[in-house]
Design goal:
The complex is a heterodimer of chains A (331) and B (307). Chain A is mainly alpha-helical and 331 residues long. Chain A is 75% helix and 2% strand. Chain B is globular and about 75 Å long. The chains are: A mainly alpha (331), B mainly alpha (307).
Chain lengths: 331, 307
């Protein structure tokens, strides 16, 4: 690679070399100009593709969503927009399905995120030991991450099946009555959370592991000199040491939780999926957004749900900030 | 190898200090560093084996269910050992459930997205890591900020845009919005600011190379290991992406996850066919994880926020 550069470069005129003749002076000035243009302009050219695609396909849609949410737009006639001001928001506020979906999104979010991150922390701690086959364990814990939402949800739907599913069979073996995982609210939410937990625990564990390995060994030595037990070391050295990674994973999981869509959709097996079960018992905001837009053909309402999701995210982060500030004040 | 073949400036004091950062770069950065070195006890091994079993079992059982027939899957106790019908079920899934077309579509979508993401992320990552320009920090903060915005929020206008462009149900509708990724830009920036020595870029400048040539001849060779990792991770994400393809594509032209939803949507469910489809759709990524597991693991760890 680099060798070929050298040859190519050798043919060009080095701009810095002093010359005396006038004709070459203008050439030098021109190449100096080109050089300055290159140094000033190239960075912007290099980052331009990212920002152009982002502006066109992410930022513009995001902003335009708010404009659409103030209109009535039907799926069949996308170019006909009727101004309705805040009607969509007022209707959404009075719609019990919205509050139900909001509640489900929050409860599934909590049931899936909290155990997932705690288990990831434990797994990362285990992976941080010096051991045989460490690569195998790392890759094995990443296998769920390689599985698509669709494939994972299909398998778990079958494992949680009421009549012949493996879970109910195992429960029966220890004398527990079969659970109606799909039709009952809390079992359904637990089953859906299980899919999320399965897919993301290993990935988060690797993020934690990376951060744990960056903790200087001296801190552990100091702690053990102070007579701190293994558990004390874990809570007083490891956890504070990976704090920013923990915050990062909480942020990512929160975003993921507000967007939850594929797992409940497929868990509902087709027709019931979009409504989140016969009684909307596991309909999330993501599903409601899709139902309003692509089943009820009300794109304006769909955009309103999207804005509600965005607000929920903002609120979650504000709440997290507040908790953090309160905690740092008390400690 | 790069540093030796580059013309060394005569006033450069000594090649060794320049060599050091170059050696620091490259593959070593992506390798895991040794952390604290307690040995795992028996309990740790037992727990890890349980975790590994829990991770792998659902996929193993996908294979078991895909290799039996519908009546056997629906009996209790459930089957735990593979049956004889694996290949016939896979063949049925390929033909009947449109999985064949879906696999080809997903290959195109994920391949194009991964290639373009890697290319643009390396360009932008290099600019953010090593070039000086107005508003660099503000723009980088903007890139990081965009990571926090879930794409689902803009789905309604995006859908309208695609139908106006005539791309509804077409692959470009899935490809274009994801041609770049903020995570990718940030990942390459982090990698290059550590792995690429400033001296190399300056040496290239002194020799009169323009920015694109510096990128091509100096940055790319050093960035290659990180680019490979970013390619694989992006490929996995694009292959598995669900929401937007589900919204904009239909069953005549699906990607793998979209085709899989259709498998389960019928009123008469053929369980072993569904599982065969799920297995088929996951297989390419599983092979990739088995072959490149080490690189993917180290890549994810390298992209993590440390400290």
């Amino acid at each position: 690679m680099a060798t070929s550069t050298t040859k190519a470069l050798a043919g060009e005129e080095p701009p810095g070399t002093p010359r005396s003749t006038g004709g070459e002076g203008t050439a030098r000035r021109r190449s100096a100009l080109l050089h300055r243009l290159d140094v000033k302009g190239a960075p912007f050219a290099f980052i331009a593709p990212f920002f152009i695609v982002f502006l066109a396909f992410s930022f513009y849609p995001l902003v335009y969503t708010s404009w659409i949410s103030l209109h009535d737009v039907e799926l069949a006639t996308l170019d006909v927009m009727e101004w309705v001001a805040f009607d969509n928001y007022v209707e959404l506020w009075g719609d019990s399905r919205f509050w139900n979906a909001l509640q489900n999104t929050i409860t599934i979010g909590v049931i899936s995120t909290v155990p997932q991150l705690l288990m990831a922390l434990g797994l990362a701690h285990l992976l941080n030991y010096r051991m045989r086959a460490s690569l195998f364990f790392r890759v094995a814990s990443l296998v769920p991450y390689a599985t698509s939402v669709a494939a994972a949800a299909l398998v778990f739907t079958m494992i949680f099946e009421r009549d012949f599913g493996m879970i109910n069979w195992a429960l029966g073996a220890v004398g527990i009555d079969p659970v109606n995982w799909e039709a009952d609210k809390w079992p359904a939410q637990v089953a859906i959370s299980t899919i999320v937990i399965w897919r993301w625990t290993g990935y988060n564990a690797l993020l934690y592991l990376a951060a744990m390995q960056a903790i200087p060994a001296e801190r552990y030595e100091a702690a053990s000199l102070d007579g701190a037990s293994r558990w004390k070391q874990f809570t007083h050295v490891t956890v504070p040491g990976i704090r920013s990674t923990i915050v990062f994973t909480i942020v990512l999981s929160t975003i993921g939780a507000t967007q939850l869509f594929g797992e409940p959709l497929i868990f509902g097996q087709g027709p019931n999926g979009i409504t989140g079960g016969a009684d909307n018992q596991y309909q999330t905001l993501g599903l409601l957004l899709y139902e309003e837009g692509w089943k009820n053909y009300q794109m304006g309402r769909s955009a309103t749900v999207a804005w509600a999701m965005f607000l929920l995210l903002v609120l979650a982060f504000v709440a997290q900030r507040l908790i953090k500030r309160l905690r740092s004040r008390t400690s | 190898m790069t540093i030796h073949s580059l013309p060394v400036r005569t006033d450069a004091p000594d090649p060794t200090p320049a060599e050091k950062p170059a050696g620091r770069g490259g593959r070593r950065l992506l390798r895991q560093r040794a952390g604290r070195q307690h040995h795992a006890g028996p309990l740790a091994y037992v727990l890890l084996v349980i975790m590994a079993v829990l991770s792998i079992f659902p996929l193993y059982w996908t294979m078991v269910a895909a290799s039996t027939d519908n009546t056997r899957v629906s009996q209790t106790p459930p089957p735990f050992l593979p049956g004889p019908n694996l290949f016939s079920n896979l063949a049925r899934a390929w033909d009947e459930a449109a999985m064949g077309k879906a696999m080809i579509n997903s290959l195109i979508v994920a391949g194009v997205i991964a290639l373009s993401t890697v290319m643009f992320a390396t360009l932008a990552g290099f600019a953010f890591a090593k070039l000086r320009f107005k508003g660099r920090n503000a723009l980088l903060m903007l890139v990081i900020g965009t990571m926090m915005v879930p794409p689902q929020l803009g789905v309604v206008p995006l859908f309208m845009m695609m139908s106006e462009l005539g791309w509804s149900q077409q692959l470009p509708a899935v490809i274009f919005p994801t041609l770049v990724s903020a995570v990718g830009v940030f990942f390459m920036r982090q990698y290059l600011s550590e792995a690429l020595p400033d001296e190399l870029v300056e040496a290239g400048r002194v020799d009169g190379a323009h920015s694109l040539r510096i990128f091509w001849s100096i940055v790319l060779p050093i960035a290659r290991p990180a680019m490979a990792v970013l390619f694989m991770i992006t490929f996995v994400h694009a292959w598995n992406d669900f929401f937007w393809p589900f919204v904009v594509l239909d069953m005549t032209n699906p990607t793998v996850p979209v085709a899989l939803t259709q498998l389960s949507a019928g009123y008469v469910r053929d369980q072993s066919l569904i599982m065969a489809g799920a297995l088929l759709g996951t297989l390419p990524l599983l092979v990739m994880f088995v072959v490149f597991g080490r690189q993917i693991v180290s890549g994810i760890m390298a992209g993590a926020v440390k400290g």
